[in-house]
Automatic annotation (TrEMBL):
PROSITE patterns: ABC_TM1F (PS50929), ABC_TRANSPORTER_1 (PS00211), ABC_TRANSPORTER_2 (PS50893)
Alphabetized Pfam families for the sequence: ABC_membrane (PF00664), ABC_tran (PF00005)
Molecular function GO labels: ABC-type oligopeptide transporter activity; ATP binding; ATP hydrolysis activity
Residue stretches making up the ABC transporter domain: 367-600
Keyword list, A-Z: ATP-binding, Cell membrane, Coiled coil, Membrane, Nucleotide-binding, Transmembrane, Transmembrane helix, Transport
Name of the protein in question: ATP-binding cassette subfamily B protein
Cellular component GO terms held in the UniProt record: plasma membrane
InterPro entries assigned to the protein according to its UniProt record, in alphabetical order: AAA+_ATPase, ABC1_TM_dom, ABC1_TM_sf, ABC_transporter-like_ATP-bd, ABC_transporter-like_CS, P-loop_NTPase, Type_1_exporter
SUPFAM superfamilies associated with the record: ABC transporter transmembrane region, P-loop containing nucleoside triphosphate hydrolases
Protein species of origin: Paenibacillus endophyticus
Membrane topology label: Multi-pass membrane protein
SMART domains associated with the record: AAA
Domain ABC transmembrane type-1: 48-332
Cellular compartments annotated: Cell membrane
């Protein structure tokens, strides 16, 4: 029960974080600290309780200098004090020290609840946003860079959060308590303590810009390395096939050398920062000792008070030093917040909010003067595309590479939006439809099939529940997978490996076709769906397709013109325009663009 509650709580956290980031105009202007503050909404109670236990558990470091001073004063002036005073001070400090065990555990417990909750929620919010980003945005963002943001940058933000509560908060509390006790004892000594504040601010100001710049450069190099390593892993078969191992190693080594250089410069800046801080405050501590010793020598304070003030000043200096030393870690976290915000506040998303949801579709399409050009380019990928498609009709798109065939399919799927004209489905502008509800009635078999590392059954039934074995067996037969699966020792439960790496290209494509078949779609998108099949497999799959497309609107892109002979109509694309439309026989008889393409394949 508690596990279900925690999962529900995490889901609510992710949704809450995601909704916070939907207001991009607010978050883009927000400072990193304000952004971090917003992450902890709903967890402030845990943080405040943690802070309460922090104050209690830290009592020994506040009480010890006082007890030490008392014992020294008693020992140096036995005429005025009894020996029992030493024992009383001993038992007081003993109790104060022992209570640290339960209170420290409570402090970490409440702190961890908040930090871990935000860490998981932030990663979940990133994943949700990645699912919302437009396809164009995903094409611009390397997979390795995205992985770095989800893993490394979130970890850096988590570490910064911990530093705030484990190092910064205790340091601030120590400074306040030590200063308050010192001020109560001697306002003259407390004024000396105040001098540490402008000195610490000066040191941070001097090094802040260099540390921030070094962290930014180092973070970008890490993202670049992550991206290149991801590419290297995918390219290993090509690298091996062409004997280019040394070339690839040199390419990665070049990136690693850049990281080494940036990391070295970052370490050097932090080293100067830390040593400058240490030397400055050690000098201050010596000056404090001389000053309080001078006061004791003149009889203005007792000898034990020198030790007490030295203890409190050491505590203040240690806290200030700690604050300054964690600044590089905080700077790293702040830079990671900038990195994460690049994704979370991105406005290049597929926005389905408030749009019409569809319970069912007929599959009737109308392209009205559709144009498409990419941002920053005057070249039109599509220009004045006008076409009516009846429900249940099979339309094939052919043409040379770059003619705009796959772009039309991406418009039908909703991956792209026209920059001019309209795509109308069942009398509704596709731009006004909630594409998530619309795509439930689609089945897509892309040119590059995509499998995940699960079983064959998992890949066929991806995203669907309550699929019977009979349904699976039917689509397995239709996709010409029966013989292949029958030869496997684990049948449908065979693991396909990452990206289906244990299977041949044709086998992966047939599994992708079976995945489309099992969905029983109203609209079918086939982008070179049989390109990886041998002639015999293609023949069987084509027969299955003929059964599948009956009564369903089908859009096909094919380079093998023989595979689209039975399409109701063939649309010939050229330079982003429709050059010809007709049946196979009509286009062959006209001896136009389609005829010329066909002749090239003979």
């Amino acid at each position: 029960m508690s596990e279900r509650v925690e999962k529900a709580r995490l889901s609510a956290a992710a949704k809450g974080l995601a909704s916070t980031f939907e207001n991009a105009s607010l978050e883009q202007d927000a400072s990193p600290l304000k952004f971090l503050f917003s992450l902890y909404k709903g967890n402030f109670a845990n943080l405040f309780v943690s802070l309460f236990f922090l104050l209690i558990k830290s009592a020994p470091i506040y009480v010890l200098p006082i007890v030490t001073a008392n014992i020294i004063n008693i020992a140096t002036n036995p005429a005025k004090h009894s020996i029992s005073g030493i024992w009383i001070n001993f038992f007081i400090i003993l109790i104060v020290i022992l209570q640290n065990i339960p209170t420290h555990a409570a402090y970490i417990s409440f702190l961890s609840r908040a930090v871990r909750y935000v860490e998981a929620g932030l990663r979940s919010a990133l994943v949700r946003k990645l699912q919302q980003l437009s396809i164009n945005q995903h094409r611009e963002l390397p997979a390795g860079k995205l992985q770095s943001k989800v893993l490394r940058d979130v970890e850096a933000v988590e570490m910064m959060s911990k530093q705030f509560m484990i190092a910064l908060a205790p340091a601030v509390v120590n400074i306040i308590v030590s200063f308050a006790i010192t001020l109560n004892s001697s306002w003259v000594v407390s004024l000396f303590f105040v001098l540490t504040i402008p000195m610490s601010i000066t040191i941070v100001t001097i090094f802040r810009r260099k540390i921030r710049k070094s962290n930014k450069e180092f973070r970008k190099e890490i993202e670049q390395m992550s991206s290149r390593v991801s590419e290297m892993v995918e390219m290993i078969p090509i690298t091996r096939a062409h004997g280019l191992e040394k070339v690839e190693i040199e390419r990665i080594d070049s990136t690693l050398r850049n990281i080494q250089g940036k990391g070295y410069r970052l370490d050097l800046v932090e080293a100067y920062f830390g040593s400058t801080n240490w030397v400055t405050f050690q000098i201050f501590q010596v000056l404090c000792l001389i000053f309080t010793a001078y006061l004791a020598y003149n009889g203005e304070i007792q000898v034990g008070d020198v030790v007490m003030y030295q203890g409190f000043f050491a505590m203040i200096l240690g806290s200030v030093t700690g604050l300054i030393n964690i600044y590089p870690q905080i700077a790293k976290g702040l830079e990671s917040i900038h990195s994460i915000k690049e994704i979370l506040v991105s406005t290049d998303i597929e926005n389905n909010s408030g749009k019409r949801k569809l319970a069912g579709v007929r599959g009737e399409f109308s392209f009205r003067g559709v144009e498409l050009s990419y941002p920053g380019s005057e070249h039109h990928v599509l220009e004045d595309v006008t076409l009516d498609v009846e429900a249940g009709e099979c339309i094939a798109f052919v043409g040379a590479s770059g003619a705009g065939k796959s772009t039309v399919l991406n418009l039908v799927i909703g991956f792209l939006q026209p920059t001019g004209g309209k795509v109308i489905m069942d009398g509704i502008d596709l731009a006004d439809i909630d594409l998530r509800s619309y795509r439930k009635h689609l089945a897509v078999v892309p040119q590059t099939n995509i499998l995940f590392s699960g079983t064959i059954r998992d890949n066929i039934t991806y995203g669907l529940r309550d699929i019977t074995d009979e349904q699976i067996q039917r689509v397995v037969d239709m996709a010409n997978l029966s013989e292949f699966i029958g030869q496997l020792p684990n049948g449908l439960e065979t693991m396909v490996g990452e990206h289906g790496g244990k299977l041949s290209g044709g086998q992966r494509q047939r599994i992708a076709i079976a995945r489309a078949l099992v969905r029983q779609p109203s609209i079918i998108i086939l982008d070179e769906a049989t390109s990886a099949l041998d002639n015999e497999s293609e023949f069987h799959v084509q027969k299955a397709m003929q059964e599948l497309i009956k009564g369903r609107t089908t859009f096909i892109v094919a380079h093998r013109l023989s595979t689209i002979r039975d399409a109701d109509r063939i649309v010939v694309m050229k330079h982003g325009r429709i050059a010809e439309v007709g049946t196979f026989e009509e286009l062959m008889a006209s001896k136009g663009e389609f005829y010329n393409l066909k002749q090239l394949q003979l």
